[in-house]
Design goal:
Blueprint lengths: L8 E6 L11 H15 L3 E4 L19 H11 L4 E4 L2 E2 L5 H14 L6 E4 L4 H7 L6 H19 L6 E2 L4 E2 L16 E4 L6 H8 L2 E4 L5 H15 L7 E5 L11 H14 L3 E4 L8 H10 L7
Parallel strand pairs: 1-2, 1-11, 2-3, 4-5, 5-8, 8-9, 9-10, 10-11
Antiparallel strand pairs: 6-7
Helix pairs in contact: 1-9, 2-3, 3-5, 6-7, 8-9
Length: 297
């Protein structure tokens, strides 16, 4: 049972760029979505970090934009919401370059960048584009080294980094991030042995998928925090959530009840896709009817 009220932040994730107006209007339509979410009070604007569309959404050849270019574009049309991927595959970019990319986003957005990251899973797109895709154990080794490199660069430590997979002679990062002490790190996934241990060791937030095992995942995270000497309560717990307010807001009450249930478990944020997001109206409905209702659960 929670001892005090939790403010549940709402975030929109954009997983699909097959908008009705097509690629020629995608820039303008995406800008409208970003502005509407920012003005409606969404705490986060997130995009997937994939190069091919994923099976749960559609076939691989559906439109997919590169994540950090998209976030940089959204930074230019927003002023408040935090910007992140949900989540970056660790093997997609060299760690030193990833730290520079997120730093750039943080500086140009006025300190609104987060690093969402995970071990990567989509072998099809990696093979398709020639990205090395090692076995899962090695991907987790690379994930941990990536986390260490980003944290080292963000604290201004230019001493050489010598890891098993990455060696950096001078991890220089200039300009430095605006976020203090650094852009928050969100690790996505519910793996109980490694992923949640990395959350306890390195991250400021986790992202879990809804399901009957959510409470147990939080218990596992708490145990990892105890083992790492980390304060469990300082980690922001986020859950993926599908937002469908209905054409006229008729489903908002049900959504508020579901979000209240997440708050009762200890979640601080719900981030996910908004049905028919390109219409903008669903964002406005959530902003007027859901966000105020979950501000103090």
């Amino acid at each position: 049972m929670r001892a005090e009220a939790i403010t549940v932040q709402i975030g929109v994730q954009i997983p699909d760029y097959t908008f009705p107006n097509g690629p020629a209007r995608l820039g303008a339509d995406l800008a409208a979505v970003g502005r509407a979410a920012d003005e409606a009070g969404f705490g986060f604007i997130a995009v997937m970090d994939h190069f091919f569309q994923i099976p749960v959404i559609g076939p691989p050849d559906r439109e997919m934009l590169e994540a950090y270019s998209t976030l940089a574009y959204l930074a230019g049309v927003t002023s408040r919401a935090k910007l992140l991927t949900l989540v970056t595959g660790t093997v997609y970019r060299h760690p030193g370059i990833l730290a520079k990319i997120v730093t750039t986003l943080d500086v140009l957005s006025g300190g609104r960048a987060w690093l969402g990251i995970g071990a990567a899973w989509n072998e099809e797109e990696s093979r398709g584009l020639g990205i090395p895709f090692p076995p899962v154990a090695e991907r987790f080794e690379r994930l941990e080294e990536t986390l260490q490199i980003c944290l080292q660069m963000w604290r201004g430590d230019q001493t050489p980094y010598q890891g098993k997979h990455y060696q950096l002679e001078r991890p220089l990062n200039s300009p430095q991030v605006l976020s203090k002490p650094h852009p928050p790190i969100m690790i996505g996934g519910g793996g109980e042995r490694k992923t949640l241990r990395f959350v306890a060791r390195y991250a400021q937030a986790c992202n879990l998928f809804p399901g009957p095992d959510l409470a147990r995942k939080l218990d596992v995270l708490r145990a990892h925090c105890d083992a790492e000497g980390r304060d469990y309560d300082e980690i922001t717990k986020t859950c993926y959530f599908i937002f469908d307010p209905g054409d006229k807001g008729e489903k908002t009450g049900e959504m508020v009840d579901q979000l209240a249930g997440l708050a009762e478990m200890g979640f601080h944020a719900a981030i996910g896709a908004v049905a028919n997001v390109w219409e903008v109206t669903p964002l406005e409905i959530i902003g007027s009817q859901v966000i105020p209702a979950v501000a103090n659960l």
